[in-house]
Design a protein that fits this description.
The protein is mainly alpha-helical and 413 residues long. The chain is built from 18 helices and no strands. It is globular, with a radius of gyration of 23 Å. About 10% of the residues have low confidence.
Length: 413
């Protein structure tokens, strides 16, 4: 709302910086809440729901701003938009703080018995509920964990497309549509983002051990879309518009990423650090997607160049190519991470060979306890004994016979 009072670039820049700083807590916070309240089997669908609302509200956002633009008064339209939507955000934020508890143990609207049930439901996650203790060793562990580093790279390449789609309206208008038509043609893109996300969430629920496969498949429509935008004749505006709409598949990959953060990283400090790394890389990726150097410089030179250059308008060929490369790298990083998860799971199964069912059950019980003692996935008793990280459903095909180690928290991908 303060933005509406600004009258200079310095003021706008300052307020926008503050806005970005406060907004930076939203997605990491939702990841934490999802991991605290829902089981691994439930988290994919829950993440899909809240991520999909970005698309649903994006669909009606154009209509809302269009309606606000018809309000007659002394204030400029852009100021009214910030004042009205800002006030709504403040009210919703206050309600969120009052209604949503920190964790099941302190939830005021649950009875004592219901709190116990809520905690027991997520015992098998072995990622705990919440701890305010800062552990320096967990920071170092997060920084040196190759799986978390790969999650950061996936976040980076996914965000390149997000930054590029900030130009979505400009790209569509460049096809030859009027400003009003551009607003209408942009709405299906947001709606399809929501639909793709929900379909991806359902697919993860249906195939819980193939989340990274789901995320990789979701990159296929955007890859096709970028090819259509760049390769179709400039006069084929409807075909190129379909290409823009197909870009809507990319948020599914980000949803998969959020799910992996919630289920495969344990230890309160390590999880917070991993989330910070992933979202910092996301911000860097958006910067890359929005800036103005040509794509070949963007990819060959340094992080920070802009891939949408003014002299390439209205086609922005270089920026579209950068998005295409980002989608392809997303698949490469997804499959690489899945291989790492598979290797750890195979080592786990081999390490447990020859152990009795009683020994395995004892390990599982101790692992559950440590999961609530702010122990990381690397140092949980299961990992400590065998040198493995054992923190999610095993990666097996549905036809595989479950081993007796199944349920001892292998890594899901």
């Amino acid at each position: 709302m303060i933005t509406a009072t600004c009258s200079s670039f310095a003021g706008l820049a300052t307020v926008r910086f503050m806005l970005g700083m406060f907004e930076a807590t939203i997605s990491p916070g939702f990841v934490a809440i999802t991991g605290i309240w829902w089981t691994r089997q439930e988290q994919a669908s829950r993440s899909a729901i809240w991520v999909s609302f970005l698309g649903f509200f994006g669909t009606i956002g154009g209509l809302i701003t269009f309606g606000i633009g018809h309000i007659e008064g002394s204030l400029a339209t852009w100021k009214l938009i910030f004042l009205i939507l800002g006030a709504f955000t403040i009210v919703w934020g206050v309600l969120f703080v009052l209604v949503v508890p920190d964790n099941p143990a302190t939830c005021k609207w649950l009875t004592q018995e219901e709190r116990v049930v809520a905690i027991q439901r997520v015992v098998e996650n072995k990622t705990g509920t919440k701890s305010t203790t800062f552990v320096k060793a967990q920071v170092l562990e997060a920084l040196t964990d190759p799986k978390i580093l790969l999650l950061g790279l996936i976040s980076f390449v996914n965000a390149v497309a997000s930054g590029g789609l900030s130009f979505g309206s400009i790209i569509i208008k460049g096809f030859g549509f009027t400003s009003l038509q551009t607003t209408l043609m942009n709405m299906p893109l947001s709606f399809l983002q929501a639909i793709f996300t929900l379909i991806g969430g359902y697919a993860q629920h249906k195939f819980p051990n193939a989340r990274l496969i789901v995320g990789s498949v979701a990159m296929i429509p955007p890859i096709i879309g970028t090819v259509l935008i760049n390769q179709l004749d400039a006069h084929n505006k409807w075909g190129r518009l379909v290409g823009v709409w197909l870009l809507a598949g990319y948020p599914t990959g980000f949803m998969v990423l959020l799910g992996l953060l919630a289920t495969n990283v344990a230890g309160s400090t390590k999880k917070s650090m991993a989330s910070a790394m992933v979202f910092v890389m996301y911000c860097v990726g958006q910067i890359v997607g929005e800036f103005s150097f040509p794509a070949h410089v963007c990819l060959a030179n340094r992080i920070g160049p802009q891939c949408f250059k003014a002299n390439q308008a209205p086609s922005y060929h270089g920026g579209i190519v950068a998005m295409l490369i980002g989608f392809i790298l997303n698949i490469v990083f997804n499959l690489t991470l899945r291989v790492l998860y598979q290797l750890e799971n195979k080592k786990r199964d081999k390490a447990l060979e020859g152990k009795s069912q009683e020994e395995i059950e004892a390990l599982k019980d101790e692992s559950r306890v440590q999961g609530f003692d702010n122990v990381t996935d690397k140092h949980n008793v299961s990992a400590l004994m065998f040198g493995l990280g054992l923190f999610a459903d095993p990666i097996r095909s549905s036809s595989d016979t479950p081993s007796k180690s199944e349920g001892l928290s292998s890594i899901d991908g």
